[in-house]
Amino acid sequence: MNAMRSNKIFFGIVGGGPNSWIGHVHRIAARFDNRYTLCAGVFSRNKNISMKFGASLGLDPNRCYSNYVEMALKEAKRKDGIKVVAIMTPPSSHQRIAEKFIEKNINIISDKPFAGDILQAKKLYKKIKSNKKIKYALTHNYSAYPMVREAKKMVELGKIGKVEYLNVEYIQDWSEGEQITSKNAKRILKWKMDKSIVGCSAVLNEIGSHAYHLAIYISGQKAKKIYADIEQISKKIKCDKNARVLMNFDNGAKGQLWTNVLAKGGVYGLRIRVYGSKGSLEWIQNDPNYLKFNPSKGAVILKERDFYFSKFSKKFSRVKYGHPEGYLDAFANIYKEFADFLNNKSKKKFFFPNEDEGLETAKFINACKISSNKKKWVEVK
Amino acid sequence: MNAMRSNKIFFGIVGGGPNSWIGHVHRIAARFDNRYTLCAGVFSRNKNISMKFGASLGLDPNRCYSNYVEMALKEAKRKDGIKVVAIMTPPSSHQRIAEKFIEKNINIISDKPFAGDILQAKKLYKKIKSNKKIKYALTHNYSAYPMVREAKKMVELGKIGKVEYLNVEYIQDWSEGEQITSKNAKRILKWKMDKSIVGCSAVLNEIGSHAYHLAIYISGQKAKKIYADIEQISKKIKCDKNARVLMNFDNGAKGQLWTNVLAKGGVYGLRIRVYGSKGSLEWIQNDPNYLKFNPSKGAVILKERDFYFSKFSKKFSRVKYGHPEGYLDAFANIYKEFADFLNNKSKKKFFFPNEDEGLETAKFINACKISSNKKKWVEVK
Amino acid sequence: MNAMRSNKIFFGIVGGGPNSWIGHVHRIAARFDNRYTLCAGVFSRNKNISMKFGASLGLDPNRCYSNYVEMALKEAKRKDGIKVVAIMTPPSSHQRIAEKFIEKNINIISDKPFAGDILQAKKLYKKIKSNKKIKYALTHNYSAYPMVREAKKMVELGKIGKVEYLNVEYIQDWSEGEQITSKNAKRILKWKMDKSIVGCSAVLNEIGSHAYHLAIYISGQKAKKIYADIEQISKKIKCDKNARVLMNFDNGAKGQLWTNVLAKGGVYGLRIRVYGSKGSLEWIQNDPNYLKFNPSKGAVILKERDFYFSKFSKKFSRVKYGHPEGYLDAFANIYKEFADFLNNKSKKKFFFPNEDEGLETAKFINACKISSNKKKWVEVK
Amino acid sequence: MNAMRSNKIFFGIVGGGPNSWIGHVHRIAARFDNRYTLCAGVFSRNKNISMKFGASLGLDPNRCYSNYVEMALKEAKRKDGIKVVAIMTPPSSHQRIAEKFIEKNINIISDKPFAGDILQAKKLYKKIKSNKKIKYALTHNYSAYPMVREAKKMVELGKIGKVEYLNVEYIQDWSEGEQITSKNAKRILKWKMDKSIVGCSAVLNEIGSHAYHLAIYISGQKAKKIYADIEQISKKIKCDKNARVLMNFDNGAKGQLWTNVLAKGGVYGLRIRVYGSKGSLEWIQNDPNYLKFNPSKGAVILKERDFYFSKFSKKFSRVKYGHPEGYLDAFANIYKEFADFLNNKSKKKFFFPNEDEGLETAKFINACKISSNKKKWVEVK
Q: Of C8, D8, D82, D303, which is most buried by a Cβ count within 10 Å?
């Protein structure tokens, strides 16, 4: 019945099956603002599993596929076919899946990273740009937190002056409290150990990409040259776990990025600070409804989401100040904006990440890999 | 199409129209976990407005009502009629609306407070208990935060020993930065000034009820006797704005409750501390993913939602530790649990607030009013 | 040698012997700014102990007394006798000791509370006022934190408008992690169980007095009427442990004070919030270098000690912003100011607590005792 | 008079004159625990200024010098001459001043850094080691915070397992809210612009040395190889302002150090995190009475100074938990321990920084300078 509502968008999913955490997240995000109707999906390469899971989501069995090529083909033929596909498979498959839907003029919401490596990224970028009929959104979801956008706006408005230093980090602990060994690595890390799935770098594709995206999103600057030192789990277990990166930005600013997926007891992770000629900003995912603004000459200002003098953040808020928002509220902002964008609802500016930022992040990761191998400063290009 | 899914529950809404903040919140909460299909509603007493707003939500025009009596009657007659009605009108109407649906065997999710005053509360309670076919949930949503439930569980398990002291407060600022005067009061406070709408006490019905509920929910204790001092805005503006309450609990514990809706610059508001014979707990809505546990003899433990050693909270979490949840995630927990409850999905214990807690809170508010008038300690009964 | 320096003040101590924590604190405070030379003391009623301890502090054996009357007499006769005596004995002895020194024209720094009960307080007050030659300071040391004084100044300057609400609490845990019983009470609580030593109320004299003083110090208001509920440890152990107080202030403001010395796992204790018609202030001893200012209509401002826009706090700071100060730095401010005051160094305004605030606090405690007994609102007079 | 006390140590000062902030700090630290008597000093190269300032400190005019060579010579000849000299001049003079006193068998407390550059550092180190009669302490004062020592102890005891990652930063803002230009640089930065005074690197000598020292102090590891990028204020103003350093430690751990003296609005600065195989530790100077311990598999533990389960910290504490200590309390710990050490008071282990740590830090800074010039990884040696 809801599906009859004219402004709800028919969408489908590739990935995000029964054991997927991120699948759950995307589906909540899609429902959040009542803008999408889930109609189709590939939830497994096994037809039965895909149908069973689809049924649990209320899908028509005929639209539960086990193959994304088939899905793109069949959905494109239906009058009530999906307008958007959300891709939430591992990194290395993003490009080839997206391309099939682009060819069928189906818009894309893709989980990050943009692609598994730079070659895939360049191909995908070209493909997206080649089809003017489709739109593309990339779920670098942290950039959709209202106070992150408040920060971006403040930088744009010159509130901290010229950006001079940037410090960003995203650390996690994938270890489940164990030391990773040849014996337990596969059980604990699963596909994240396999470069044909996770792409060129586990730590950089999985979370480093978020950190870099956040940095360029807020600062409005891109890294021009970087120096990276990437560390694998061990000589035998060639899975990147740690990356330390020095960044020199376009405008002369200097920065550091640290990302690590085996920082034990270090779950708190995503934090960014931007220092400008007139003051600095700090945002921490753990306390996402606040943005710390330290003017160069003045008391610290703790801006709260949706509060007086944080007006920009209000556009991306659903609940009043004093009532915390979280990860899912932010994630849903991308789905919501993309719906508005597709509906040409207004000529307003949009703030969700797209293919340009996706390619930029892929270039950064590629430069990191080269720099770490050569032990040299490398241009991001 | 989704509506065809067997385990989705047809539900309707009374209240929560175009200008309602809480209506927006309830609808997101209902969508969150894909367990409800919105089918009907009274969104205004004006038929046109109700239909227009209903249409924007994708509703069948025939099921957009302007009168809850009509809605209860007609929905009860439909084969595909609603199973649940969510009531989100002002306090004084909760009882009479709920009763109509109870008579038609339609389950209730009601916004707080339970009722506008003690008389209404007692009637409503009796009505609910009189119909074994219906279930009732009350959206004292703060009790659905995972770490609040972790706290409740810890108290139950004796982690802090016997509860000895309790301190709870919920303060807000409704002033919009102005001094309330006879001139601007109506513009700023709207129906909250009118006792026939807001019920016996603006501050206690609107937010004090939350604070008291949270206290009894976590501590497992009820106030036996209380001493309250309630303050109106002014002699002319007879709208309760501030309440200071001393509480003596069943088990001998002592407590304090403070609630205020005109605490300027005091928007941070909901905080509870429970001190037991072995340690204390502290939870603050502003930092909802954490629970501070101070053992009597040992370092402070900062429990994080869904993290090791906060296992109970995991049951009520959707995203992994390190990724903050907020107000809407908690609110949705009540809708989710109520769906499970209606579906008899399991014999598991449920944690959403119900009519017993509703009546208890109404008794407390009533005792506060009497105590404040008489300037005496009063039994909560 | 240092003693020859003209502007160093000769001072003596009564109390603060080998096992005294507060003695240690006072002596560090006196040394902090190089303004005093310790010359004499009564460190025990046992002459040998007093001499031995005095020797460890570098004192002349002839000036290590075992009796304060003797000390007052002899020091008054010496040409190089003490100009100031610091009294750090238990509450009930403050009055009688101070009086002996006042009679000899020796200035007083007294530990809090002003006196053991209201009778002593009134006598002492009269005595102080009767001798124009002497000056008196009371170590309500929390009021000497730079950011507390910044808060006081902000209220004076009208930054938060008219004070409307006040919430102050000081809770501690004296239990050492045990349940207090008739058996262990004396071992754990020592003289704090004995009213002839601790005065009329253990919890109010020991820490409640600090909380109330802080409230009147910052707000510039005094409680006019109060309603208090004081709780003893048990029927047998008649030692006040918990006090809940409602306060109505001179200017119409309402407030609450909570103090408790057996709040298990509740060691974090001293916190004050003042809400005015234009905004609110919050200060917590645990984070003493900051003052939170929430303007009614504007982002929260986190003022740091000695930082831009916290200029008043600079007067009372020794180290630069970014470098935390603590309890001892604040305590020493009282000694430092008192030295300046005695030296008539300038006509500047002084901010240390004196006999007026001491008497006021004694009146408050007395009113609390009466109110709690009568279960009535009582005037503070 | 106090000077007659046998266990008080006669000490003198070189530097720390009327306009010196650090001089003030050292003198308070020396007085804190009543273990030193200030007897002599060079407070200026101008005899009159030195005498006048010395007089204000209560010194004998004959012992107020204008030249440290003279002071060393004359004090060494006196029977009551100083046993310890505290040096608090700019970095480049530390070595030559210290050497003169070492030659006269006078013990040294030196402000950091150990020396102006690696050549000076090696000479000074040799000199110290050549005279068995003298002891040397270096005021890397941050390492004397009780909770820093608790952290060191926890690492030693294996509480976080093998150290794997380390992140340390110390950032300040010397700009006084202005953009540094050729015109205002000298006014704002003073001698910090002059390498003949500040030594080889302003940012690394002034604050980076503290950050590195803290890292090796807590972790028990030294950097083996480092990669550094140091930035000057501008081509014209050759004053190092920013250093980003990657560190590979002896035991295989990886680390990052960031130090900056022109991070606008970034005054909060000193923070260290150490990640081990079993958990991590975090300490922030801004909240110095706490140490965050994140076990790999378990809730975060917030250890408080002097509290249950932070027993080691108690040794270095003066006031009880719940009462904050700060910068001066920590600074004084070095003076206190050094006094104990000189008095051979016990065979206890000492924790103050000495010449070994001084040389190590000088090597690190030297390696940073070389690495930044060569754009290569460099061994710390």
A: D82
Residues D115 and D169 both lie in one domain:
no
In this prediction, residue B5 has a pLDDT band, given cuts at 50, 70 and 90, of very low
Do D298 and D371 belong together in one domain? yes
Could you say which of B107, B126, B141 is where a domain stops?
B141
Which amino acid, one-letter code, is at A295? P
- Could you give the 3-state DSSP secondary structure of residue C87? strand
Interface test with A, best of D257, D296, D372, D377 (most A CBs within 10 A): D296
Contact D300 B297 (CB under 8 A): no
CB spacing of B301 vs D297 below 8 angstroms = no
Sort out which chain B residues have CB atoms less than 8 A from A286's CB and list them.
Answer: 289, 322, 324
Q: Is C309 on the interface with A (CB under 8 A)?
A: yes
Helix D146-156, helix D327-342: angle, nearest 10: 70
Look at residue C3 in the predicted model and tell me its pLDDT: 36
- Tell me what the pLDDT averaged over chain D comes to: 95
B364: CATH: 3.30.360.10
Q: Does B301 touch chain D (CB under 8 A)?
A: yes
Chain B nearest-CA distance from A64, in A, is 14
Tell me if D299 is assigned to some domain.
yes
Partner chains of B (3+ C-beta pairs under 8 Å): A, C, D
Task: Using a CB–CB cutoff of 8 Å, tell me whether D299 touches chain A.
Answer: no
Measured CA to CA in angstroms, residue D170 lies from D212, D242, D253 at distances of 9, 10, 20
pLDDT at position B297: 86
Choose, out of D325, D328, D331, the residue to mutate when testing the contact with C (most C CBs < 10 Å).
D328
CATH number at residue B37: 3.40.50.720
Task: Tell me D307's DSSP state.
Answer: S
- Chain A nearest C-alpha distance from C150 (Å): 13
Whether residues A190 and A289 fall in one domain: yes
The confidence band for B42, taking pLDDT boundaries of 50, 70 and 90, is very high
Instruction: Say whether C308 and A301 touch across the interface (CB within 8 A).
Output: no
pLDDT band, residue C310 (cuts 50/70/90): confident
pLDDT value at position A5? 47
Candidate from A126-130, B320-324, D370-374 with smallest mean pLDDT? B320-324
Peptide bond between residue C288 and the one before it cis (omega within 30 degrees of 0): no
Q: Is residue C235 exposed (0-12), middle (13-18) or buried (19+ Cβ within 10 Å)?
A: exposed
Q: Which of residues 29-48 of A touch B (CB under 8 A)?
A: 31-34, 37-39
The answer to which of A183-187, C5-9, D66-70, D126-130 has the lowest mean pLDDT is C5-9
Domain co-membership, B73 together with B20: yes
Average pLDDT of D341-366?
Answer: 90
Residue at a domain's end among B141, B162, B187: B141
Q: pTM to 2 decimals? A: 0.97
Rg (CA), chain C: 21
* Whether residue A189 is found in the same domain as residue A228: yes
Q: Is D296 in the same domain as D165?
A: yes
Rounded to an integer, the average pLDDT of A172-188 is: 94
Query: Model ipTM?
Result: 0.95
* Average pLDDT over every residue of B160-186: 95
**Residue ranges in chain B assigned as alpha helix (H):** 21-32, 47-56, 68-77, 94-103, 118-130, 146-156, 185-189, 195-198, 202-203, 209-219, 311-314, 327-342, 355-374
Sign (positive/negative) of CA torsion B86, B91, B94, B97?
A: negative
D267 close contact with A: CB closer than 8 A: yes
Residues D122 and D149 in one domain: no
Q: How many alpha carbons lie under 13 Å from residue D114 in its C-beta half-sphere? A: 31
Q: Does B260 touch chain C (CB under 8 A)?
A: yes
Shortest alpha-carbon distance between residue C294 and chain B (Å): 5
pLDDT digits over C314-328, tens only? 999 999 999 999 999
Residues C238 and C291 in one domain: yes
Full domain range(s) for residue C136: 2-141
Taking only the tens place, the pLDDT of each residue in B220-243 is: 999 999 999 999 999 999 999 999
DSSP per-residue string spanning D44-61: -SSHHHHHHHHHHTT--G
